[in-house]
From TrEMBL:
Protein name per its UniProtKB record: Large ribosomal subunit protein uL15/eL18 domain-containing protein
Basic residues composition bias: residue spans: 96-105
Superkingdom per UniProt: Eukaryota
HAMAP family for the chain: Ribosomal_uL15
Signal peptide (residue range): none
Domain Large ribosomal subunit protein uL15/eL18, residue spans: 140-216
């Protein structure tokens, strides 16, 4: 009997579906159903079945065991106990806590950049230039780009062209720090009247627009005003009111024509000399200069 069992176990494996099952498994079921009297024969056949199945699956019998949650462990050395200092001499890190006696290292240490008393590197190197905290950064946009957008139908020349219009049509970038400067590049393409509101404008650009019958108004917006101008939906989403237009600081009064309007206007306002004077009067008189203290 055992000779025939040995010969059957060496037969090739017959795949059924996607999992190959050896022929010896049928013999195992047959042997179990017959219930032999000897326990050793059942154990031997079970061992042969496991070894043949694991060999068919491409792994050794030692790696067939299933993964269990109660067998999960960290790698050796992955977790280390916290080193407790100053808890008695028996711990090895008591009293001086591993710092030794006296000296710079035994105390609080030194500040960053201290080089033992010599002149540190930050003082040995010379200074170069400075950063002006009052400088303003404007995004430039040329008249030629605006003319091409009008010809393409992306900008309506009959309406007022604001900085919001320039941003929505991608004539300028997304980051508008302190405003937009209108440049005279492509001024020969402007052959019809257009009306614009920007932060700054060059002399060539103003002459080109006004010669075609248009107008340019230099308006002032602060940081919060630019947010309300370019993204008024944010205030509506947060259920907040639009802020009031801020007055320019005294040093910028001579560089702007009027205070920016909120929300973004769509109709141009004619700019005659009387309206220019009225806009200047609305901004208020400039502050009186402070008297100089008398030198005794």
């Amino acid at each position: 009997m055992w000779r025939r069992f040995f010969l059957f176990s060496k037969l090739p494996i017959r795949p059924i579906g996607s999992i190959p099952i050896p022929i010896s498994s049928s013999i195992h079921h047959l042997s179990v159903s017959t219930k032999p009297t000897f326990q050793t024969s059942v154990a031997l056949s079970d061992c042969l079945l496991r070894s043949s199945f694991s060999t068919a699956m491409g792994s050794s019998p030692a790696t067939v065991s299933l993964l269990k949650l109660n067998d999960l462990r960290d790698n050796k050395g992955a977790q280390q106990k916290k080193r407790r200092k100053g808890r008695g001499i028996g711990s090895g890190k008591g009293k001086t806590a591993g710092r030794g006696h006296k000296g710079q290292r035994a105390r609080g240490g030194v500040k960053l950049g201290f080089e033992g008393g010599q002149t540190p590197l930050r003082r040995r190197l010379p200074k170069r230039g400075f950063k002006n905290p009052f400088s303003l950064t404007f995004q430039p946009v040329g008249l030629g780009k605006i003319a091409r957008l009008i010809n393409a139908g992306r900008i309506d020349s009959s309406e007022l062209i604001t900085m919001k219009t320039l941003k929505e049509t991608r004539a300028i970038g997304k980051q508008i720090k302190d405003g937009v400067r209108l440049m005279g590049r492509g001024a020969e393409l402007i052959k019809w009247p257009i009306h614009l509101e920007v932060s700054r404008v060059t002399v060539r650009a103003r002459e080109a627009v006004e010669s075609a019958g248009g107008s340019i108004r230099k308006v002032h917006y602060n940081k919060l005003g630019f947010r309300a101008l370019l993204n008024p939906e944010w205030f509506e989403k947060k259920r907040r009111l639009l802020p009031k237009a801020a007055r320019p600081p005294p040093k910028l009064w001579i560089k702007v024509d009027a205070i920016g309007r909120l929300p973004a206007p769509t109709k141009p306002i004619p700019f005659c000399p009387k309206e220019r004077a009225a806009a200047k009067a609305a901004m208020g008189p400039p502050p009186a200069p402070k008297p100089m203290p008398a030198v005794i």
